[in-house]
Amino acid sequence: MGMGKTSSTLAALEYLKAMGEPVRALVLAPLRVASSTWPDEVVKWGFDLRVSVVTGTPARRRSALQADADVYTCNYETVPWLIAELGTGWNFTVIVADESTRLKGFRLGGGGGSRARALSRVAFAGVNRFIELTGTPAANGLLDLWGQCWFLDRGARLERSFGAFTGKYFRQRRCGSSPFAVTYEPLDWTQEAIQERLRDVCLSLDAADYFPIDSPIEVPVPVELPEGARKVYDHLQRDMYVALDDGTEVDAVNAAALTVKCLQVASGALYREDATWEELHDVKIEALRSIIEESAGAPVLVAYHWKADLERLLKAFPKGRALDKNPRTIKDWNAGKIPVLFAHPASAGHGLNLQDGGHILVFFSHWWDLEQYQQIIERIGPTRQAQAGHPRPVFLYHIIAKDTVDELVITRMKSKRTVQEVLLEALKNNCKAKEEGV
To answer: What is this structure's pTM?
Structure first.
């Protein structure tokens, strides 16, 4: 993430359109990415492309398919529906598979899920170009490549079937008592040979070649609040109280309490007066899931603020661990035994060395404390990476709920202004917008 896969693809589509090639592109992506990231990137960079988001209810999807657009974005889960809906009217000229590892399990004789099998029936039906985007092409090994590459050339480069692929590039090892339980081990020359076979259809970018690694690479990950959560947020902001579905009223007694409640809603769970909480959405969890998928198996450090966040995160990512007072936790993290470590910035401050465990930090929820923010970054920061002998870039992902206090907190961290200055400026801008009827 952050290397420009989406914008590069949009630039290529815009170029094809400008050169007179018919462009009717289908983008397949995780739901959040399909509904927000792709249309947002078009606006951000000013591409001359019309985007239609084919998500939501069947009625909304049908309406979006009928729109006059250049790019149609759709989540993988609705691929079978999309193919059945269009039938013989399938007329896409370009297919873009974002996070293409979703196709890795495809097999000609079956397997790999109904979505990949359905897509295989139309992948070459009038399609001039098939583009795949991923930060983790082979996170679990070279076996992941065959299914993805089949959609590029029907097996021309990595053999026509998965069996032929494994037979040529791997040796089988029995594992367990069952004769059908086998594992595949690549031969000594396998990786080099596969890289050579794919050289003409793959482009790989290394962040260290494009960014200075003596400072963190910051990647904003904006998310859109679902309709229900947006209503709660707007109600709170306007009236300083809101009634939840169970009838409980949540009050913000002053401006400071209001910002706390708004930050809770932005993160996904709102506390009641009795210290219990109600989950309002999981869009940040889904955004984090995408980041973890693209981390190529590298451990991910996640900063959270609320106890409700931690409970929800541990439930969503059962292989994750919380940073606690047990010294073994830090040792396991630095030894690469913890894939996802959840840490509160207040407990991950001065003195902790976490740089051996990873170089990816995600801010799931946000808070105003600048020192805590800086301190948790420093736990895995570029200086510590260099001191530990890890010449690798540090990535900071900020999952930000759009049009919420999240954005003000990020402004505070970047400008280092006081909380009061940021809030007063935001209030001033809101008043001005209302006067202008925006």
So the answer is: 0.72
